[in-house]
């Protein structure tokens, strides 16, 4: 007997991710491209798409790409096989786009030459707004209410800037400007504080680095700013990333933790030559390093949080930005029919799938149904849906359950709440089943000599009734969150009584599947116990028990066989004197 019922293995179907790499290419040459890293480790590269592929972001099933020196935005549809070419091209009118963030179906992207943040409506692919800023904007980030942009250059002569600016997305206007030190580059937000990496140059083109922090950025009064200058020649990069409740900065060939005073610890993730580290980004629990010598070396190294290298990919020229797409990333668990609600319709569709009545083929529906994300769809997923629908109104989960056969009925006894039952029965051709209607949802499907059934949220102890013999092949019973221990019923039956009618003796032929204690009792038509025929242990197999009813009057009697686990078989007999 197999207790775990595996419907299908979906792990491969749900492992579909693509990580996109923006390969900038040579400035002044339209040889920028996009590399695509698939789950199986293979990598593909598009053909040339423009001059300096600057930045990219995923929005739903589309990739939004800024191409800086071609002054355009490209939008590509994403499939599990990659990008659909040639894509949609949007001219930015010589704006030199730099970086972007997506908020509520709109892409906000910074632009050097037009010195603004443009607003691209992703629903109709039109630029609908331009938000002027004071300087040349670079990095952009959204804190849930406001946009923040870094201004590394103050004017079109590329003089050094020293501010970050705050934009209200409802007003489409700059509402605050904060001086943070020279050369703000990349920005990150953590615990309501804004962290800014800075790089700038003196008149002799000596390089200087520093980091700044703006405290309590959503306060309306003047924000407090901390600045730490690292001086000339410090081996810093521009990247800042969040990791383990801290902020890290690209430094000395890896990522180094920023201390409270903005000093840098030794790098703990990565060990490269700093001049070759072009970009660093954290994607899920991995760190993606873009490495280039600005010639033939163009690689992406993927490291875990301990700095262990997981993979190395050969990219296009100058890997400078990353974005990851996940299949069904917009799917809500439980919303199987994608109507933005979790209700009994989703449960029914999941039941149809389990019992092979209507097998789902849409990968996102399958992903939504797999509530436990264990690669299987079964009653454990349904009980989680039921728990969400009931909104915590479940009291006292069961830890074990016992199935009881009672004269054609299947009963369920448990020590608490049962969220659902899933069973597979095998039987002969002469078989009929009636499933309970006292449940949140229930259904079955019979194909040849096999019946699959699912009952979600049973409200009574009777699960179903049958006509004909059957065997329980597979079963899962779960409470509100997990599978519980199941005691299977004894398969006991009064196969026949001969002779019947009889006078005054007859033989009761019993079929017992396993040793059990049992009683065999005769009742009259009023339900009165008139004789205990047997009370003791029965061995497995066929058992014949004689009954002498010479002390009873003629009439109809009910013989009831009851085992220690509650399984019951009954047979009517007639005594004729």
Can you describe this structure?
Helix 1 runs antiparallel to helix 3. It is elongated and about 125 Å long. A hairpin with a 4-residue loop joins strand 14 and strand 15 (173-179). It starts with 16 loop residues before the first strand and ends with a strand. It has 577 residues and is mainly beta. The longest helix has 12 residues, at 379-390. It has 3 helices and 43 strands. Residues 1-15 have low confidence and may be disordered. It has a 5-stranded mixed sheet with strand order 31-34-29-28-36, with no helix packed on it.
What does this entry show, briefly?
The chain has about 575 residues and is mainly β. It is elongated.
- Strand order in space, largest sheet: 31-34-29-28-36
How many alpha or pi helices?
A: 3
Ends: how far apart? Answer: 47 Å
Helix content: under 10%
Based on CA atoms alone, the radius of gyration comes out at 36 Å
Shape: elongated
The share of residues in extended strands comes to over 45%
Structural class: mainly beta
Output mean pLDDT. Answer: 92
């Amino acid at each position: 007997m197999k207790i775990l019922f595996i419907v299908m293995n979906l792990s491969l179907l749900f492992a579909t991710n693509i990580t996109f790499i923006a390969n900038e290419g040579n400035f002044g040459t339209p040889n920028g491209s996009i590399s695509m890293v698939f789950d199986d480790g293979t990598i593909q590269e598009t053909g040339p798409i423009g001059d300096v592929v600057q930045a990219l972001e995923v929005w739903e099933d589309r990739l939004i790409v800024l191409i800086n020196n071609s002054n355009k935005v490209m939008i590509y549809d994403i499939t599990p096989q990659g990008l659909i070419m040639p894509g949609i091209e949007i001219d930015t009118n010589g704006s030199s786009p730099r970086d972007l963030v997506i908020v509520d179906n709109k892409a906000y992207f910074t632009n050097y030459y037009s010195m603004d943040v443009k607003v691209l409506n992703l629903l109709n692919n039109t630029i609908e707004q331009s938000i002027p800023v004071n300087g040349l904007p670079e990095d952009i980030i959204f804190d849930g209410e406001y946009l923040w942009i870094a201004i590394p250059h103050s004017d079109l002569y590329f003089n050094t800037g020293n501010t970050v600016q705050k934009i209200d997305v409802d007003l489409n206007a700059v509402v605050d400007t904060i001086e943070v030190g020279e050369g703000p580059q990349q920005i990150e937000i953590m615990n309501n504080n804004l962290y800014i990496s800075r790089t700038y140059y003196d008149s002799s083109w000596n390089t200087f680095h520093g980091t700044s922090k703006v405290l309590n950025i959503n306060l309306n009064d003047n924000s407090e700013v901390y600045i730490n200058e690292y001086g000339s020649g410090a081996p810093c990069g521009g990247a800042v990333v969040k990791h383990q409740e801290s902020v890290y900065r690209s430094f000395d060939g890896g990522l180094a933790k920023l201390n409270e005073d903005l000093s840098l610890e030794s790098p703990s993730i990565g060990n490269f030559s700093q001049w070759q580290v072009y970009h660093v980004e954290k994607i899920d629990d991995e760190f993606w390093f873009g490495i280039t010598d600005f010639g033939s070396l163009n690689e992406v190294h993927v490291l875990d949080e301990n700095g262990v290298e997981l993979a190395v990919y050969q990219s296009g020229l100058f890997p400078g930005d990353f974005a990851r797409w996940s299949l069904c990333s917009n799917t809500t668990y439980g919303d199987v029919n994608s109507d933005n609600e979790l209700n009994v319709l989703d449960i029914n569709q999941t039941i149809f799938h389990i019992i092979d009545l209507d097998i789902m083929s849409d990968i996102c529906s399958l992903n939504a149904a797999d509530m436990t994300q264990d690669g299987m769809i079964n009653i454990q997923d349904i009980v989680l849906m039921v728990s969400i629908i009931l909104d915590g109104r479940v009291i006292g989960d069961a830890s074990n359950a016992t199935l009881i056969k009672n004269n054609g009925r299947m009963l369920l006894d448990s020590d608490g709440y049962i969220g659902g039952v899933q069973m597979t029965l095998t039987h002969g051709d002469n078989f009929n089943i009636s499933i309970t209607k006292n449940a949140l949802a229930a259904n079955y499907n019979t194909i040849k000599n096999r019946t699959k059934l699912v009952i979600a949220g049973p409200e009574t102890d009777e699960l179903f009734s049958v006509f004909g013999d059957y065997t329980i092949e597979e079963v899962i019973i779960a409470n509100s969150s997990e599978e519980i221990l199941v005691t299977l019923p004894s398969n006991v039956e009064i196969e026949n009584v001969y002779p019947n009618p009889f006078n005054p003796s007859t033989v009761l032929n019993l079929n017992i599947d396993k040793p059990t204690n049992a009683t065999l009792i005769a009742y009259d038509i009023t339900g009165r116990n008139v004789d205990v025929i047997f009370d003791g242990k029965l061995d497995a197999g066929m058992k014949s028990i004689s009954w002498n009813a010479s002390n009873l009057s003629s009439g109809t009697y009910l013989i009831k066989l009851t085992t220690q686990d509650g399984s019951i078989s009954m047979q009517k007999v007639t005594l004729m004197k």
